[in-house]
Amino acid sequence: MSGVTGNQDVDIDLGQLVRAVWERRLKVVAITLVGAGVAFAGAKMIAPKYRGETRLLIEQRAPAFANTQSADANAGPLLDELNIASQVQLLQSADLIKKVINSEKLYELPEFDEAANGSALTDILIALHLKKNPAENPPEERVIDAFTERLQVFQVPGSRVIGINFTSKDPKLAARIPNAMASVYLATQSGAKLDSNSEATRWLEPEIESLRQKVSDAEQKVAEYRSVYGLLPTNGGSNFPTQQLNDISAELTRVRGEKANAEARAQAVRNALSSGAPSDTLPDIMASQSMQRLKGTESGLQSQISDLSTSLLNNHPRLRSLRAQLADIKTQIRQETQKILTSIENESKVADLRAAELERQSTTLQQNSAKAGEDEVGLNALQREANAQRQLLETYLVRYREAASRADSNSSPADARVVSKAVQPVDPYFPKVVPIVIVATFATLILTSIFIMLAELFSGRALRPVGVSAVPAARTEDELLAVAAPVKSKRAAPSMLSAHEEDVVVEESAETVEPVDGNEFSIGSVAEYLTSSRAPLAIAISPVGDDGSAATVALARKLSASGQRTILVDMTGSGYPTVLMAEDLEAPGVTDLLCGVAAFGDTIHGDRASDAHLIPQGTSDVRQAMRGADRLSLLLDALMSAYDIVVVECGAADVAGVSRLTRSKDVEIILSMPEVLEDEFVHAMTEFEKAGYQRVVLMSGGEAVEPDVARHAA
Fold it and tell me: Of the given ranges (110-119, 577-586, 647-656), which has the lowest mean pLDDT?
């Protein structure tokens, strides 16, 4: 009997399923051996079948004298996936299959006549009208159906290779049929290309003769039209008036540019004369040799005057003579500048006259060009007709030469070639005795095991209630303290967070504790206080040892029972909360997480007596684990984001050890003392208040004591 009530949640006991199969192992092995023997006998009774395979490569094949360009132009469609698929369908066509059947005389073989090879099972199916009588079909259709059932044509993935498979009871026939199909296919493709070339030559011959006459007539019309309208061709491809107009337009543009340039130069000289600015920076003035000589003389006179001014008076005859010569030179420079200006203005006038003449000629040529353009419309039409006829003739001539060169049967190979011929197979394709026996053996083993497991499930022996374990769970706070005795010590156990980080000590004994009387515990009051304050983190300190840890476990279960998502973290040295809550004392916990040997999710376990969760002490070395104690704050932050309240049982930890858990002082500190010891209580309260912890709650055998009351009592 399973022991599961009708309204109770259950889990599947996987261990029981495995044990059930193992207990019946002899029966499983016997059934598996029988299945393997039946598979072996059946495989040996099946008539062997052989398979041969031929492979064709679809590629562009042209005669050796064919030019490269034409071959490349025709190779494009052959690389297309649709073209390869079309060739696969062609190889399975009824016409090609009929040619192979007739060439190999397959209609004479009994293997291809289903009506002649009827079996008792086939006769029964025909009698029950579950299968059509093969004898009702014509003999040719029966042979084709039998041939198609044994044929398989496929494209090799990722290539232009087509495989032809054929299955037969005769190994020689299995190799001969694929090779015959490849030969018929290549001959059919080559013959189709030869017929196409022959038909092309017959059609092109009269068309070429007709086009030659049309081209001659069109070219004659073009020549006559040019002669009548005087549309003589030029090097540029246009008519003569248009060419002249283009030349005049280019010359007119150049003359206008020269005129504008001359006017700009003259204006620059006039500006220099009117403003009295020096004109020796103007290009036209500096290019005049007369101006260069005058400028040189002026510079010499100014130099002499400067030299004599240092030794002679201003009215000295020599200085007056030199100043008179300098004034005369400046007059000559101005006169010479005026001559240059007149010369530039003359250039502008000449350019203006040339531009006027060119404009008159351009007007005349525009009229002539317009008339020539109108006449050229008809010429262009005749030329287009002649060009079209000539291009068509050239195309037909090229096609005719190609088709004529491939009129021979050997000059038009099929666009495919055999890359692998079928050879006579030695081993049968079917049946494969060894694989069949192996698959049947494993299938029988698996099915037998599944049947046993299903029987175990339906009987209820593999089901267990949720939350029930081999260790009885405490139901009340009184019972909780009663079952705490096996690991209880007379003195307080050290904490993992103590200042000296002492070794873990767990003492097992057979000592029992009398149940606590039915008076009200402070555990419920502390639970109500934590629930109302919505405290996310509560750190429990048990100065008296494991008795206080047991009360903390009861507090966690009380919070869980009130609907709070609660988790207890065992940071004690004795691991007493782990013993009370965990189903497996070797489960990974805090020390394993800090040592890096367990993942975060693997350290969270369920309480065996409530819906609360537990992170047990763990099995790794405590000293090594406490080297990573700085990561405890990160652990608690992650837990507070997932649970309503996180309870950390620290055992007999001191203030320094608690400070390593969290930097914040705004946390709930619970002094778990089932029996209040005045000295221990006063000492703990004083130490935590000095450290800045103001929210300290005493949890004792009576009502919970708030911080102010606790300090007054101290």
Answer: 110-119
Helix axes of 25-45 and 14-23: crossing angle, nearest 10 degrees: 70
Q: How far apart are CA 109 and CA 112, in angstroms?
A: 6
The answer to whether residue 74 scores a pLDDT higher than 60 is no
Distances (CA, A) of 196 to 94, 190, 199, 289, 541: 22, 10, 5, 88, 102
pTM, entire model:
0.39
Q: Counting Cβ atoms within 10 Å, is residue 557 exposed (0-12), middle (13-18) or buried (19+)? A: buried
* pLDDT tens-place string over residues 43-52: 888 888 899 9
What radius of gyration do the chain's Cα atoms show? Answer: 57
Distance, in Å, from the CA atom of 293 to the CA atom of 306, rounded to the nearest integer, reads 20
> Hey, what are 164's tokens?
């032809």
**Is residue 688 within a helix (H) or strand (E), and if so which, with residue range?**
helix 678-690
Q: Is the dihedral of CA 97, 99, 104, 107 positive or negative?
A: positive
Task: For the sheet with 50-58, list strands across it.
Answer: 151-155, 161-168, 50-58, 416-420
Q: What are phi and psi of 258, to 5 degrees?
A: -65, -40
Convert the pLDDT of each residue in 293-340 to its tens digit.
Answer: 777 777 787 788 788 777 877 788 878 788 788 788 778 777 777 777
Dist. CA 400–CA 395, nearest whole Å? 9
For residue 168 the two structure tokens come to 């037969």
pLDDT of residue 490: 31
Segment 447-474 mean pLDDT: 66
Tell me the per-residue pLDDT of 665-689, one tens digit each, with 9 for 90 and over: 778 888 888 777 777 777 777 888 8
Cβ contacts of 65 within 8 Å, gap of 6 or more? 405
Query: Are the C-beta atoms of 415 and 75 separated by less than 8 Å?
Result: no
**Greater pLDDT, 654 or 122:** 654
Q: Is the pLDDT score of 515 beyond 50?
A: no
Tokens found for residue 331 = 């007059």
Distance between CA atoms of residues 676 and 683, nearest Å: 12
500 and 679 Cβ atoms separated by less than 8 Å: no
Tokens of 563: 């609907």
Average predicted confidence (pLDDT) for the chain: 76
Is residue 530 within 8 Å of 577, Cβ to Cβ? Answer: no
Query: Which of 277-291, 469-483, 631-645 is predicted most confidently?
Result: 631-645
pLDDT at 88 over 90: yes
Q: Which residues pair with 153 in a beta bridge?
A: 164
> Would you say 34 and 475 are in contact if contact means Cβ atoms under 8 Å apart?
no
Q: Which of 199, 208, 165, 139 is closest to 55 using CA atoms?
A: 165
Residues ≥6 apart with Cβ < 8 Å to 142? 112, 113, 114, 115, 134
- pLDDT recorded at residue 696: 81
Residue 223 vs residues 231, 365, 390, 394: alpha-carbon distances, Å: 10, 24, 15, 21
* C-alpha triplet 76, 82, 84: angle, nearest 5°: 80
Q: How far apart are CA 271 and CA 341, in angstroms?
A: 11
CA 573 to chain centre: 52
Q: What is the torsion angle, in degrees rounded to the nearest 10, for the CA atoms of residue 606, residue 608, residue 609 and residue 614?
A: -40
Residue 673 phi, psi (nearest 5):
-135, 90
- Dump strand ranges (E) for 128-221: 151-155, 161-168
Angle among Cα 519, 520, 525 to the nearest 5 degrees reads 165
Is the torsion defined by CA of 652, 656, 660, 662 positive or negative? Answer: positive
Amino acid at 87: Q
